[in-house]
Design a protein that fits this description.
170 residues; mainly beta; Deoxyuridine 5'-Triphosphate Nucleotidohydrolase, Chain A; nine-stranded antiparallel β-sheet; three-stranded antiparallel β-sheet; 3 helices; 12% helix
Length: 170
């Protein structure tokens, strides 16, 4: 397993568009990853439905929680969907895995994500869980996760799921 360091990441970002729509590469580029920032927050409005072949799949309905005039949202304990600012384009010979920033954890919240598959391109979504009984305040563009890119061996095809190119035109 090979994790890409900041020098290779910066080259891939600038030459091949590995990550687009970032705010400040000098702040977001880390020694072994890239931090993604908060674009939107949503609350869940309905249950989700999952099955084996996706014929019955229904993703939960959500409602956006707007940032106030000072540019932040106060979130009570619970679960939320977040959308990131950055568009990620995972090369076919890599995967990406996200971990929450330690500041988020130390504030009593975390982010849960799935694997960014080889060939995936989009503005990803994740699950924000607020455990802190006092809640959390998040400003628009807050850095929430660090995305780590790992070289994959034996990859034969790229991602072809329904989330390909998600949230790019929003």
């Amino acid at each position: 397993m090979t994790v890409l360091g900041h020098i290779l990441l910066e080259q891939l970002i600038k030459r091949e568009g590995l990550i687009k729509d970032y705010i400040n590469i000098n702040i977001q580029l880390q020694p072994a990853g890239f931090e993604l920032t908060l674009r939107k927050v949503f609350k869940f409005k309905s249950p989700g439905i999952l099955d084996f072949d996706n014929s019955k799949r229904k993703i939960s309905d959500v409602e956006e929680i707007p940032f106030n005039s000072q540019g932040y949202v106060d979130l009570k304990p619970g679960t939320y969907k977040v959308v990131f600012n950055e568009i990620v384009k995972v090369p076919r010979d890599m995967i990406a895995i996200a971990l929450p920033r330690s500041s988020l954890l130390r504030s009593g919240a975390t982010i849960l994500t799935a694997v960014w598959d080889p060939g995936y391109e989009g503005r990803s979504e994740a699950l924000l869980v607020v455990f802190n009984p006092h809640g959390i305040r998040l400003f628009k563009n807050a850095r929430l996760i660090q995305l780590i890119f790992i070289k994959a061996s034996g990859v034969t095809r790229g991602y072809r799921g329904i989330y390909q190119y998600e949230n790019i035109n929003v």
